[in-house]
Amino acid sequence: LKHLTLVLLALGQSSAFRGHRKHLDSPPSTKDEVVAEEQYFDQVLDHFTATDGRTWPQRFWSNWDNYVEGGPAFIMIGGEGEANPRWLTYGQWSEWAKENGAAMFLLEHRYYGQSKPTEDMSTENMRYLSSRQGLEDLGHFMTAMTNTYDLMAGSWITFGGSYPGSLSAWMRLRFPHLVAGSVSSSGPLFAKLDYFEYFEVVADALDTTGPGCNLALTEALKTVEGIVGETDDLEELSSLFRLCEPLDGSNSMDVMSFMELLVDNLAGIVQYNGFYNEDIFSICAIMTDESFGEPMNRLAAVNDVLLGPDQEMCLDHTYASFLSLLTDISWTGEGVGWRQWIWQTCTEFGWYQTTNQESGVYGHTLPLEFFEQWCQDAFGPEFTHEMMEKSVAASNIEYGGYEPSVSNVVFVHGSIDPWHAMGVLEDLHEGAPSIYITGTSHCADMYPDKSSDPEELTAARVRIGGLVKGWVENARK
Predict the structure, then answer these.
(1) What is the C-alpha to C-alpha distance for residues 95 and 113, in angstroms, rounded to an integer?
(2) From CA 167, how far away is CA 173, in angstroms rounded?
(3) Which parts of 268-424 are beta strand (E)?
(4) Looking at the predicted structure, is the pLDDT value of residue 463 above 70?
(5) What confidence tens digit (pLDDT) does each residue in 290-335 have?
């Protein structure tokens, strides 16, 4: 369950869209931009052990350009990758900060980017990484900023997209005396080991382009599975899909990793539909174009498009390659946090995107056991199915799953985003509404308005802005 990374890996190898596509896309850079100066906050290492007084430097940024004395404080919550200070002048929350005279903060999540609580990421040290510790980090930070800058008490508005969208909702649950309101964009709230619903949404999204796309994909994947299962000579298949080294059909983990890449490429396009050059329509246009040959050849053509025209670029499919990322205990500091995020899925959330759909639309080569093996290989044999089931259940008990006991939270989801299946899609009550936007993808509401945006998306942003304004006004009373 790896992150989306659109930056192709060095040395002519690519993980393409491999794995978890939860990482929020960064704002674009501009020629004359002035990026906020990074700062560090003395953060508590273990919020749940009173006798442990150790601290560590947590990175954050601030923007006071819009602040009016007596105004609220807005905070963008960092997630499962390096935080990007460009968010302090970008996106809808920046517009709402101007409208409400808000101070703006961005706090990087512990264990990601340059926020390194421990010497390394040994399994022993990973015990300090959890959403629970992350929430306490936020509460501790917000309290300190309130006192340091004499901010209006209880005026914080939290923002986050994807996993930080979950944290945003949970901040209002955990710290209602600090947080006046929370915007939870595309945040999955229900923890679940076998997240087979993910690819059900992918299939539904691709069906909106016409009936032929999924039919061709099903046939293509079935053909690939048949070739892998029936012959030892996989050089032609390896060449067709531009693998960095020949596929070893006797290595079940390599075979499953290869199949995972093929379906993850499709899922990444769906989740971020509309953000990049390729979208569900262009991909399905290839899959339904018989001039490319049989469905398997069309899938290979899709793979070519995603890898790009550089023929030196290849698909790094081996499990050993991925495992080397999961077992690297050194701090890299940049990009996505592979070992860290997988730790969180193993210990808190699951969200493993299996092919256990009844329809079998994308085959059946990705069982839950494949993903559970990641946890055991990266962190130890004690990560059994039973242990992980208990951990996931504990998260739902802690946070409330689909029905958190919150007010002043808005849950925003797009119908094309496969993560919406784990989110709140209907109003919990008047004070905790859900906004479900037809035809939009992951975190679309967080980005600036564009003339090409559907009316429903534009209206959603207006409604969210109104809710934020109301929360601020109530905090001032």
Answers:
(1) 26
(2) 10
(3) 314-315, 350-352, 409-414
(4) yes
(5) 999 999 999 999 999 988 888 778 999 999 999 999 999 999 755 5
**Hey, what are 325's tokens?**
């990322």
Q: Establish whether 162 is a catalytic residue.
A: yes
Question: The tokens of 91 are what?
Answer: 């996106």
Selected catalytic residue, list 162, 186, 395, 441: 162
Tokens 């969200």 -> residue: 351
- Catalytic option among 23, 109, 420, 442: 442
| Under 8 Å between Cβ of 37 and 61 | yes
pLDDT of residue 92: 97
Pull the structure tokens for residue 332: 């890299």
Q: Where are the alpha helices (DSSP H) in 67-211?
A: 92-100, 131-149, 163-174, 197-207
For residue 464 the two structure tokens come to: 């969210």
Q: Is 442 marked active-site?
A: yes
417 is an active site residue: yes
Count the neighbouring beta carbons within 10 Å of the beta carbon of residue 107.
25
| Alpha carbon separation from 444 to 257, 324, 439 (Å, rounded) | 29, 33, 10
Query: pLDDT, tens digit, for every residue of 229-263?
Result: 887 779 999 999 999 999 999 999 999 999 999 99
Q: Determine the 3-state secondary structure of 444 from DSSP.
A: helix
What pTM did the predictor assign?
0.93
- The arithmetic mean of pLDDT across residues 197-211, rounded, is 94
* Total Cβ atoms within 10 A of residue 325: 18
Which string of DSSP letters, residue by residue, matches 238-290?
HHHTTBSS---TT-HHHHHHHHHHHHHHHHHHHHTTTTSS--HHHHHHHHT-G
CA distance readout (Å), 23 to 19, 20, 232, 370, 443: 11, 8, 37, 22, 10
Catalytic residue among 25, 316, 417, 445: 417
Name the pLDDT band for 14 (thresholds 50, 70, 90): very low
Indicate if the pLDDT at residue 2 is higher than 70: no
Element of type H or E holding 179:
strand 179-185
